[in-house]
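INFO  loader      accepted 1 record
INFO  loader      residues=187
INFO  predictor   begin
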Amino acid sequence: LVGNVYLAAFFGACGAGVFLLAAWLRKEEGLAVLDRLKVRMPLLKDIFLQIYLVQSLRVMGLSLTHGVSVVDALNACRDIVKNVEFRRFMYQVETQVNQGKGIAEGFAQGAFVPSLVRQMIATGEQAGNLAMVMNRIAEFYERELEKKVMLLSKLAEPIMLLLMGSVVGVIVSALILPIFKISRAVH
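INFO  predictor   done
INFO  writer      dumping tokens
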């Protein structure tokens, strides 16, 4: 009886914790913390950054190809990506461009922007092929992202099997142990 009370209290506390965490993540400050984690967590950082780069560079490349100004294209990129940290970076790039500096200099300021992207954008800007270069970078990172997602899905399979096996083991033991206790009491 005492064990059941503790078990119920434990599950109640876990449920309340999940509810409070979900409510906090819906608020602006919770989303900001989650966005910061997305661009700083060791394993997931690369995936999220590649997603944001693909989204923004694809929009930039298409916009520049169709005659949209660099400032308007950067503004559109800010609206596409929903991560607060990345949006702040895109705003800084837009500010650099408005001050008369090149877009390559703005991208060079981003600590989390890969050096390949920095170099390619600088080269594209110098050669006057910025739109084509941005489209190519987006294509490259789309392929890289696809490979990483496939690898993660292959790694997740055994982990999910272990978790499901553990849950099934707990359920089976919870059902069988009381039967053994009853059979011992009868003999």
